[in-house]
Design a protein that fits this description.
Elements: E1 2-5, H1 11-23, E2 27-33, E3 38-44, H2 49-60, E4 65-69, E5 89-91, E6 94-96, E7 100-106, H3 113-126, E8 130-132, H4 150-163, E9 167-170, H5 177-180, E10 186-189, H6 197-204, E11 210-213, H7 220-232, E12 238-242, H8 258-267, E13 272-274, H9 276-280, H10 283-295, E14 300-304, H11 322-338, E15 342-343
Parallel strand pairs: 7-8, 7-14, 7-15, 8-9, 9-10, 10-11, 11-12, 12-13
Antiparallel strand pairs: 1-3, 1-4, 2-3, 5-6
Bound molecules: phosphoenolpyruvate and manganese (II) ion.
Length: 355
């Protein structure tokens, strides 16, 4: 059971509510997320159905309690109404939300340092503010390239520092969260792991920004509930990412669900971005899909880039080159200006010297 407490309570009022729960054999734990002032109590215990019913009636009448919520399916923290304002997520100079959008670009997988450096410089020069690159790759086939692992992570860190751009990379398992904390500026939780609750719980314990990708068959509600796990753990630095859902037509790799992007922008206070690369599956479709994402209100894009796309070790067919990325950045600036929004950029003063 979750309790939403009234806004104007003293700590004595909160203590009284906890005491009422304890008197009937239940434990109450406070959940307070970020600066948004959502004040919840999670009530747990197995004192039996009678005690639970009694507790519910006591709490429903309690002056300090605004609402008693059945915790199964509750999405108190992720809902739009839970926030006084839109959540803005900042990673370095990348700003997602609050009228600003950000571009993330980089290879599907980190392949070698020279190539990563070339991509990172190109991304930054075009107006990107975050470098992506998988080091641990969740591949559909066990025989496909699985990423460079720790070596790839180290390359990402070095290149990010050299170019002056923060890095986002996928974390595959709960046991890797702590060791990867210092290796990246933002965690990516991939489509195949959106419902991996132990991973969500572990990442939720950190304050590190998270890029949460929608499961390929997840409903909007399931997607939001995955974000709720992160929020319930205390991490509100979440950017949602629509990356295409399974369809019946193989003309595109996935179906970019722009309707759900528009819906999410109204259903939650969290920023939402679009991944046109994994949706399209074909390089020539990435630019038009990118435009559609920004047009429906996305707060940014994540795009796979490779200087020689056809030679990429993974997802070669959908990789675009740096010139195409720059064209997408131009489209994005223009589309954002129609809505009175703008693209966050790396400040020139922090541009490191090329050598
Ligand atoms: C990726 O971004 O590299 C990736 C594997 O994406 P997804 O989880 O959306 O398939
Ligand atoms: Mn990929």
């Amino acid at each position: 059971m979750l309790l939403r407490l009234r806004d104007d309570l003293t700590s004595e009022d909160t203590y009284q509510v906890c005491a009422s729960c304890e008197a009937l054999g239940f434990r109450a734990r406070e959940i307070q997320v970020g600066e948004r002032g959502v004040h919840l109590l999670e009530v747990e215990g197995d004192a039996g159905p009678e005690a639970a019913a009694k507790l519910r009636s006591v709490l429903e009448d309690h002056l300090a309690v605004a609402a008693v919520i059945d915790a199964r399916g509750a999405s108190e923290l992720v809902d739009q109404s839970a926030a006084r304002s839109e959540t803005v997520v900042r990673v370095g100079e990348a700003v997602f939300g609050g009228g600003q959008a950000a571009l993330i670009g980089g290879p599907c997988a980190v392949e070698n340092e020279d190539q990563l450096l070339e991509i990172a410089r190109g991304v930054r020069a075009a107006g990107g503010t975050l470098l992506r690159g998988g080091a641990m790759k969740p591949r559909s086939s066990p025989y496909a390239f699985q990423g460079l692992g720790k070596e790839g992570l180290a390359m990402l860190g070095r290149v990010g520092r050299e170019v002056g751009i923060p890095v986002v990379t996928e974390v595959l398992e709960p046991s890797a969260v702590e060791t990867m904390l210092d290796a990246c500026d933002m965690f990516q939780i991939g489509s195949r792991n959106m419902s991996n609750t132990p991973l969500l719980v572990e990442v939720g314990k950190t304050k590190k920004p998270v890029l949460l990708k929608r499961g390929m068959s997840a409903t909007a509600r399931e997607f939001l509930m995955a974000a709720e796990y992160l929020l319930a753990g205390g991490n509100d630095q979440i950017v949602l990412c629509e990356r295409g859902i399974r369809g019946f037509d193989s003309a595109t790799r996935n179906v970019l669900d722009v309707g759900t992007v528009a819906h999410l922008k109204r259903a939650t206070h969290l920023p939402v971005i679009v991944d046109p690369s994994h949706a399209a599956g074909r390089s020539e479709l990435v630019r038009p899909l990118a435009k559609s994402g920004i047009a429906v209100g996305a707060d940014g894009l994540i795009i796979e880039i490779n200087p020689t796309p056809m030679r990429a070790h993974s997802d070669a067919r959908q990789a675009i080159d740096l010139a195409e990325f720059a064209a997408i950045a131009d489209d994005t600036r223009r589309l954002l200006s129609i809505d009175g929004r703008s693209l966050s950029t790396c400040s020139t003063s922090t541009q490191p010297q090329a050598h």
